[in-house]
Structure formats: C-alpha cells, structure tokens
Amino acid sequence: MEKLFKLRENNTTVGREVAGGLTTFFAMAYIIFVNPNFLSQAGMDFNAVMLATCTSAAIGTALTALLANVPFAQAPGMGLNAFFTFTVCFGMGYT
C-alpha cells in the first residue's frame, strides 16, 4: 500500500485513508437510493438503476484512485438525472 499510494510522502496512514473512505461513502450514500427513485419515476426499473448507480460509482472511484492517485469519489450527478426525469420525460412527454 505504501508503494502504490505513497502514504508516507502524503503524511497519512492506511487507517486514516480507510476512515476518510468510510466518511466519504456515508456522505454520498444518499445517491444509492435517490438516483433510482428519480429514474424509476421516468419508467426505469428501480433495482436495475440501483445496480448501475453502485457499479458506476465503484468503478469511477477505483479508476480515479488507482490511475490518478487522488482521493476523489465519483458518482452519477443528480442534476442531470432530475433534468432527464422531470424536464425531458414529464415536461416534454418522452418515454
């Protein structure tokens, strides 16, 4: 872990990084339920959207950590999902 993430160079430990990761997860966990709720109103399957939300967030976060070595979490954006559901589907009538 030290070699991969340069923990000493960044003045941190594995324990601090795990605590930071858990804190970030709990701060962002709302997206797991809100995103499928929005998109299921537009006719998408709730469980499929939940799986896609979790999978895309996990892959995006892992790639950011492993390729860029930065502590950024990635997840689908709520603004675009709300725009799609309430403007495109409900407002414009698309299915």
Explain the overall architecture.
- By secondary structure, this protein is mostly helical.
- The protein has one domain.
- Helices cover 72% and strands 0% of the residues.
- It has five helices and no strands.
- The longest helix is centred in the middle third of the chain and has 23 residues.
- The chain starts with a helix and ends with a helix.
Coarse morphology: elongated
Q: Beta-strand percentage?
A: under 5%
C-alpha Rg (nearest Å): 17 Å
What's the total helix number? 5
Major pleated sheet: none
Helix % is over 70%
Mean pLDDT over all positions: 90
| Content-based structural category | mainly alpha
Q: Termini, distance in Å? A: 47 Å
Order of helices and strands: HHHHH
Total domains: 1
Report the uncertain regions: none
Key terms:
single chain; 95 residues; mainly alpha; elongated
Q: Strands, helices and their partners?
A:
Layout: H1 2-5, H2 14-28, H3 30-41, H4 46-68, H5 78-91
Helix pairs in contact: 3-4, 3-5
Short description:
With 95 residues, this protein is mainly α. The chain contains 5 helices and no strands.
